[in-house]
């Protein structure tokens, strides 16, 4: 399983994945951070971006934080 450090920005205008110069991945999601909706949408966006099934993406650390470690694969 590969882990990726991610910063999540909820309430964005569109779903988008961006890479910073320092290697961090920034993910913009349209969903608000309430009731885990942003986390659910984050998993969907990352599954599409990395071309894997949603079941292969999991939040390893930081479920209630904007700074997350996500496992892919």
Form type: globular
pLDDT averaged residue by residue: 93
The CATH H-level superfamily is: YggU-like
CATH architecture descriptor: 2-Layer Sandwich
CATH topology: Conserved Hypothetical Protein Mth637, Chain: A
Beta-strand residue fraction: 35-45%
Task: Let me know the number of strands.
Answer: 5
Which structural category fits the helices and strands? Answer: alpha+beta
Evaluate the radius of gyration: 11 Å
Distance between the termini: 5 Å
Helix content: 10-25%
Which regions are unreliable across 5 or more consecutive residues at pLDDT < 50? none
Q: Please write the CATH class name.
A: Alpha Beta
What is the chain-wise order of helices and strands? EEEHEE
Q: What keyword list fits this structure?
A:
single chain, 73 residues, alpha+beta, Conserved Hypothetical Protein Mth637, Chain: A, five-stranded mixed sheet, 19% helix
Write a concise synopsis of the structure shown.
This protein is of the alpha+beta class and 73 residues long. It has one helix spanning 37-50, and strands spanning 2-9, 16-19, 25-28, 57-61, 67-72. β4 and β5 (67-72) form a beta hairpin.
């Amino acid at each position: 399983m590969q882990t990726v450090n991610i910063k999540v920005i909820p309430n964005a205008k569109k779903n988008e994945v961006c890479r910073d110069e320092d290697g961090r991945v920034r993910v913009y999601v349209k969903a608000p951070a309430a009731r885990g909706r942003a986390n659910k949408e984050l998993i969907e966006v990352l599954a599409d971006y990395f071309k894997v099934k949603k079941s292969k993406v999991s939040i390893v650390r930081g479920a209630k934080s904007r700074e997350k470690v996500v496992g892919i694969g």
